[in-house]
Amino acid sequence: MPFTIVRHVATQLAAVLAFSACAHAQQPSPAALSRATERLEAWRKGRVRVYMDDFGELKRFRAANASLKPPAAGEKRVVFFGDSITEAWPLATDFPGKPYLNRGIGGQTTSQLLVRFRNDVVALAPKVVVLLAGTNDIAGNTGPISLEDIEGNFATMVELARAHGIRVVLSSVIPVHNYTPPSELTFPRRPPAQIAALNKWLKDYAAASGCVFLDYAAAMSDDKGMLKRELAEDGLHPNRAGYAIMSPLAEQAIGRALAAK
């Protein structure tokens, strides 16, 4: 067999093996999926009172919002809006001296964020909102939801922001990994293929609607398309190394949003 053909066959085989390894890495075992689902159901049962009494958790920031003064002249206020990844972000440390407000609530889905968007974003009169969400929708935190309905929630929040002169930074969903024991409880409910599909829509929608797209996924993924092992101990929530990557990307995106016509 000619050498060129052998080399071509070897290249094709290597590609197939690499794809198979990647696909295997992204597939949770049935046992891991079962454990993760049981944990989710137990967590959801503990949230029944919240969902029934205050679905959007409007009470969470009510006092803080009431005590907040209107933006000063020339102030470029920014609201970081999302779930636990936003909530755990030490904005004062990573953006010292900046008028950036954290309005993240752990566990929330886009359906809940939409409920509180007026109170926790519009009423605060920011110049920009940095929206990071979607991973908990995919996990099913507030029940099953289609990709189309997740997209609709994002689109409605963008439309609300635009109606009030607020510029929008749409962040990609951060990828996940299954490289550590703790990740067995977070990874199985968040299929990488669904994250990739939502991120593609977010990128396309941002381009079509004039939002700034903030691509955390591209900067934080390894060669398998998974979250880099060193960026999260539990496969989901960024550690300090993760936020160190995210912070300058967010600052750049905010700058682009402020500069946009």
Tags for this model:
261 residues, alpha/beta, five-stranded parallel sheet, 12 helices, 5 strands, globular
Question: What do you see in this structure?
Answer:
The termini are far apart. Helices cover 52% and strands 9% of the residues. The N terminus is likely disordered. The protein is α/β, with parallel strands linked by helices and 261 residues long. The longest helix has 23 residues. Strands 2-1-3-4-5 form a 5-stranded parallel β-sheet, with helices on both faces. It has one domain: 3-Layer(aba) Sandwich (Rossmann fold), CATH 3.40.50.1110.
Give a quick rundown of the structure:
Helix content is 52%, strand content 9%. The protein is α/β, with parallel strands linked by helices. It has a single domain, classed as 3-Layer(aba) Sandwich (Rossmann fold), CATH 3.40.50.1110.
Q: Strand pairing plus helix content: what structural class?
A: alpha/beta
Beta strands, count: 5
CATH homologous superfamily heading: SGNH hydrolase
How many helices? Answer: 12
CATH architecture descriptor text: 3-Layer(aba) Sandwich
User: Would you identify the regions where 5 or more consecutive residues have pLDDT less than 50?
Assistant: 1-24
Helix fraction by DSSP (H/I, runs of at least 4): 40-55%
Would you state the CATH class? Alpha Beta
What is the terminal separation in angstroms? 61 Å
Compute the CA-based radius of gyration: 20 Å
Order of helix and strand elements from N to C terminus? HHHHEHHEHEHHEHEHH
Widest beta sheet: strand line-up: 2-1-3-4-5
